[in-house]
Amino acid sequence: MPRPLRVAIVGAGPAGIYAADALLKSDTAAEPGVSIDIFERMPAPFGLIRYGVAPDHPRIKGIITALHQVLDKPQVRLFGHVNYGTDVHLDDLRSFYDAVVFSTGAMFDRELRIPGVELDGSFGAADFASWYDGHPDVPRTWDLSAGKVAVLGVGNVALDVARILAKTAEELLPTEIPANVHEGLKANKAVEVHVFGRRGPAQAKFSPMELRELDHSPNIEVIVNPEDIDYDEGSIAERRKNKQTDMVAKTLENWAIRDVGDRPHKLFLHFFESPVEILGEDGRVVGLRTERTELDGTGNVTGTGRTTDWDVSSVYRAVGYLSDELPKLPWDTVSGTVPDEGGRVMEGEEHMASTYVTGWIRRGPVGLIGHTKGDANETVANLLADFAAGRLLTPSHPEEDAVVAFLEGKGVTYTTWDGWYKLDAAEKALGESQGRERVKLVEREEMLRASGAID
Ligand SMILES: Cc1cc2nc3c(=O)[nH]c(=O)nc-3n(C[C@H](O)[C@H](O)[C@H](O)COP(=O)(O)OP(=O)(O)OC[C@H]3O[C@@H](n4cnc5c(N)ncnc54)[C@H](O)[C@@H]3O)c2cc1C
Ligand SMILES: NC(=O)c1ccc[n+]([C@@H]2O[C@H](COP(=O)([O-])OP(=O)(O)OC[C@H]3O[C@@H](n4cnc5c(N)ncnc54)[C@H](OP(=O)(O)O)[C@@H]3O)[C@@H](O)[C@H]2O)c1
């Protein structure tokens, strides 16, 4: 009797779940069948959809509903609260599975190397997003005492951070934010949020819809300085080539020429201001120094030497995410990703047998949830080609019970897909008691208990 192809997926974010979906939809799923185990370090699945996507984006959070259908399939098991590198290692996975797909994404802040980043009041956007999204592994409180705040970077994460800071706690209450986050936001003193791009409007990485959304809050006045609207040949070419860039630039132009209204919270979008130093006094942020830049003809900028000090007392660095290096896998220190060819993990010129990678850990921390689907399809196509060609390693214990016995033998507490249903129900019940759709549980122990993993 041929046995099913056994695949381990490490990371239950969208990339990992789309990889499972691609495996289930392949010919191999029919004959001789596939059997997939997903290992996830958090007690709950869904990666950055749960712990990155902003709480006031319920439509995007709703992608979870589509991903549910994959995890509902009988060929897929979830082992949550299991960390690759401590609870389970590469050699363990090799002994249970024909192939391992790593889809561990990114959850940390990329470093910004300017003086002052270590000061109190200087925050990473990833840490802040983890806080407002109720991640169990970050502090429960957040210092929101600053009246004037700077956000560095002009990508969608910067927009999320600026919007959450500029909205009122009551605007965010109908979302799934946990009680500690609502309490924290009630104390938010921010009335001015200054977002800084080091290049121009045509180089902003905002999505047009996310940008326009800033203007939808009755509490946020978005302000653009007309002097910050500038394009060179490179910018013009980019606007012609890319419809989204053009839409973003047009929105910014419209905001630059309109009258400033009287909504209480001012959100300034500045361009051509490159952060050079976070200013401090007694270990705390008291300002931000930026250098004015100008376009060089190609869409890049050069410094002018003219600096401005901005009177802000918190600085959020939204200059990109960073992945965690994975034990026993090769690592590209420049891109912060696992080197690959078509999703096959590469050690120099060689494919590391039976080892694959997909999503942000493969591509780097750029792109939308939808983009991880195509990425997963490519990786899985190559995995299946290797399977068909007989290139996969043979595991010593491919039977499904073996990994369960291994985890239990090691005393690893794990959550299951059935456990997610229980946690989901518990969060919805908590929400219902407050007239809200869901309220997230934050503490790991509470999550484990609600999932039925511990008593
Ligand atoms: C703040 C923020 C907001 C975003 N908002 C949107 C949005 O509104 N719309 C949109 O389309 N895109 C959004 N994105 C982009 C989107 O989140 C990513 O494209 C997508 O999540 C990448 O998927 P992934 O599966 O590669 O990684 P992730 O979503 O990061 O998933 C990786 C998973 O692997 C797990 N993991 C990591 N290490 C280990 C380990 N050692 N062992 C076991 N498990 C591990 C993690 O816990 C996580 O669950 C946002 C991104 C950020 C950062
Ligand atoms: N709602 C959504 O759809 C949503 C929400 C959040 C995130 N996402 C996606 O998630 C991905 C990651 O988003 P992101 O915002 O983290 O990354 P991003 O889109 O790459 O934006 C990073 C920003 O940081 C700037 N930056 C980098 N280094 C800098 C430095 N040293 N000094 C000043 N500025 C610097 C970049 O400017 P330069 O261009 O000049 O380098 C850029 O403006 C993106 O694909 C994004 O679209 C989507």
UniProtKB/TrEMBL annotation:
- Please list the residues that bind FAD: 15, 40, 48, 360, 367-369
- Tell me its EC number(s), please: 1.18.1.2
List the GO molecular function terms.
ferredoxin-NADP+ reductase activity
Q: Name one Pfam family in it.
A: Pyr_redox_2
Q: Which residues form the FAD/NAD(P)-binding domain?
A: 6-171
Q: Where does NADP(+) bind?
A: 198-199, 210, 367
Look at the named UniProt entry and state the broad enzyme category this protein falls under.
oxidoreductase
Top-level taxon of the source organism: Bacteria
Q: What is this protein called?
A: ferredoxin--NADP(+) reductase
Origin organism is Streptomyces termitum
